[in-house]
Amino acid sequence: MTDVEYFEHRNLFLQSNTKCFTNLYKYYSFAASNNEPERLIMLHKIPDYSKPRKGPGEMGSGVYLEGKEAVLAQDQMKFWFMNVIASDKISLDRSIPDSRSRSCQAVKYNKDLPKASVVIIFTDEAWSPLLRTVHSVINRSPPEFLHEIVLIDDFSQREELKENLTDYIKRFGGLVKLKRMEERQGLIRAKIEGAKFATGEVVVFLDSHCEANSGWLEPLLQRIKEKRTAIVCPTIDSISDSTLQYLGGGAYSIGTFWWSLHYKMDPIPEREKRRRKNPEVDPLMLSVLPNINLALCRRTVITLVYFWSPTMAGGLLAANREYFFEVGSYDSGMDIWGGENLEISFRVWMCGGSIEIIPCSHVGHIFRSGHPYNMTGRGGNLDVHGTNSKRLAEVWMDDYKRLYYVHRMGLVNTDVGDLSERIELRKRLDCKSFKWYLDNIIPEKFIPDENVKAYGLASYCVFLNKQIGSCFLRNREKYVSECYGFCFSRVRNRANNGDLCLDTLQRLENKGDVVLGVFACQNSGSASQMFSWSSDSQLRRETTCADISPAVLPDKPNASEVLLVQCNPRMPVLFEHQKDGALKHIKSGLCLDVDGVRSGDNVLLRTCNKKISQKWSFERYFS
Predict the structure, then answer these.
(1) Where does the Ricin B lectin domain start and stop, copy by copy (predicted)?
(2) For the residues 419-431, what does the mean pLDDT come to?
């Protein structure tokens, strides 16, 4: 191809994606990297949406019930946590809109992709959501790549899931297989059993209330073919739990975590966007231009093939089946559900693999507010997330587990079973440290007691070696530790014998801006009283920063409340911690004040006056 032809093709694409895709049918090969095989991609016409079939829920529409059905559905929602009556009215083969981007719709992948075993775990799932998951996988997966669907029944008790299900799947001619657990294993161990039972080269896990979208499987298989150690996740679209409307997805995001070891989603960081544009770091780019050399290909980036993600949600993922077991599958010592998604995420990254989100793969998922089955773990354990996440913290987080125990202090002395096998796995795989993970995989993560000026106030310490005595020697210029264990910290006001501390008052910071309060200082080290004065002079928590509220207080005309808002590194809200103890909001010139404020009230900002009600101290000060 000459330079003139190259630029003609490029301009054609830039002018109109649709026109370009309509007129290009050629094959071209593209080397993923110097040591990886070329991949073959074919461009084809973007399919027109077919006219929706008549019927409830077609083209992903919602079902709205009336009268007695609506009342009955509302009553059953209390058990199923989804509208089963609406689901039962919808065809198992219903049409849904293709939620992929136009460029994703225009790509077909290699013809020699690995074959997949799709593993679906269920326990007492409603009939129609379970079977709609199966039907959608069959209907929207190329048969040459779908090796089998494996249903793992985790000891269901509902009659319709017994002989009826066994008979129903016979219609698929052996494509759908069913394995029943002889006792309740929980989702985590059932997934391990499902992967053992499967025989495909790739194992794909789906929840039992999903709908696979068009072209969902090929991008996952393509990426695993290119990188064996990548564990990949589809983009998860939302399906309404009340109407079953296929809502699609919003902006692309990545998975991260709270220090309490719960999963959270964040926008794609700028560093990842920059990495995606750097061909030396990431050569796996798609180009629509055929027959041009690799150097020119790298200049024409039009599709994001994958995003690196620090963690994953956990329900929907795909992996090379052999690699899945090589890297430790799941921790079988974990119970039921919860925490396993972060454990596999930390482990895969630290042990040489990667967690990736594939924008061209979409799967719909019903997000329920609860579970229609028993979540009690072994021995009657009601806090399976707590015990599971402690296993993860002890094996993978090194000294940073201290930040987990700030949130889960009650688990410090809890026995969570034998960890020796998982510790040996980490040694055998020669895995990196958790600090490496923080520095390289999620450098944006705020560490409350590192690279800060101050953190909390000396109050209470849990000694692992049962020593009793002073934990911290407080000094305004230098921090000295004599503590062997985990210390918990607060920001204490010096008035009223120092018994008021800044406190979130259990208001949910992840649901929007919340008003900051004060509460009696908790010697148990409540996580709601953990604050840092950061290196850039922000009064902050894990993801929120203190700022002045614009609201007018009719009964306090000379005071303002304080909001905890999402921290913005580009627009930091500064506080000055003065030598006399005042915490001064720089922009307004006002100081934090508790004059007339009682435990459980909101803290105020008032004109600085050097009174004791405006004097604050942290647990630790760092030079």
Answers:
(1) 489-619
(2) 98
CA–CA distance, 522 with 508 (Å, rounded to integer) = 19
Query: What average pLDDT does the segment 487-516 reach?
Result: 75
Q: What is the DSSP letter of 42?
A: E
**DSSP run (H or E) holding 361:** strand 354-366
pLDDT(474) > 50: no
User: Which conformational region is residue 620 in: left (phi greater than 0), alpha (psi within -120 to 50 degrees), or beta?
Assistant: beta
Please give the residue that has the higher pLDDT: either 551 or 9: 551
Q: For residue 622, how many C-alpha atoms fall within 13 Å in the half-sphere facing its CB?
A: 14
Does residue 599 register a pLDDT over 70?
yes
pLDDT of 498 reads: 56
For residue 167, the surrounding DSSP H or E stretch is helix 163-168
Q: Residue 362 is encoded by which pair of tokens?
A: 């979409």
**Phi first, then psi: what are they for 481, rounded to 5°?**
-110, 135
Nearest CA-CA partner of 364 in 515, 206, 489, 145: 206
Q: What is the pTM of this model?
A: 0.81
Q: Which of 46, 6, 365 is nearest to 207 (CA)?
A: 365
Residues carrying CATH 1.10.8.460, the chain: 378-440
* pLDDT of 524: 63
Cα 612 from Cα 623, distance rounded (Å): 25
Q: In 329-360, which positions are buried (b, 16+ CB within 10 angstroms) versus exposed (e)?
A: bbbbbbbbbbbbbbbbbbbbbbbebbbbbbbb
**Averaged confidence pLDDT in the chain:** 81
Q: Can you name the CATH fold of 3-47+64-366?
A: Spore Coat Polysaccharide Biosynthesis Protein SpsA; Chain A (3.90.550)
Q: Residues spanned by CATH 3.90.550.10 within the chain?
A: 3-47+64-366
Domain with CATH 2.80.10.50 in the chain: 452-621
- In terms of Cα–Cα distance, which of 136, 135, 123 is closest to 179? 123
In CATH, the architecture of 452-621 is Trefoil (2.80)
Phi, psi of 452 (to 5 degrees): -125, 165
Confirm if 590 and 560 have CB atoms less than 8 A apart: yes
Q: What's the mean pLDDT in 113-142?
A: 97
Residues 594 and 604: beta-carbon distance below 8 Å: yes
pLDDT tens-digit profile of 311-341? Answer: 999 999 999 999 999 999 999 999 988 999 9
Residue 204 has pLDDT above 60, yes or no: yes
574 backbone dihedrals φ, ψ, rounded to 5°: -95, 140
CB 500 within 8 A of CB 597: yes
Distance CA 519, CA 505 (A): 7
d(C-alpha 436, C-alpha 440), whole Å? 6
> For 362-416, what is each residue's pLDDT tens digit?
999 999 877 776 667 676 777 889 999 999 999 999 999 999 998 898 899 999 9
Q: Which CATH number fits domain 378-440: 3.40.50.2000, 2.40.160.40, 2.30.110.10, 1.10.8.460?
A: 1.10.8.460
Residue 34 has pLDDT above 70, yes or no: no
Q: Compute the distance between CA of residue 255 and CA of residue 252 in angstroms, rounded to an integer.
A: 10
Convert 236-260 to b/e letters by CB count within 10 Å (16 or more is b): bbebbbbbbbbebbeeebbbbbebb
User: How far, in Å, CA of 19 to CA of 13, rounded?
Assistant: 8
Q: Coil, strand or helix: which one is 312?
A: coil
Amino acid in the structure at residue 144:
E
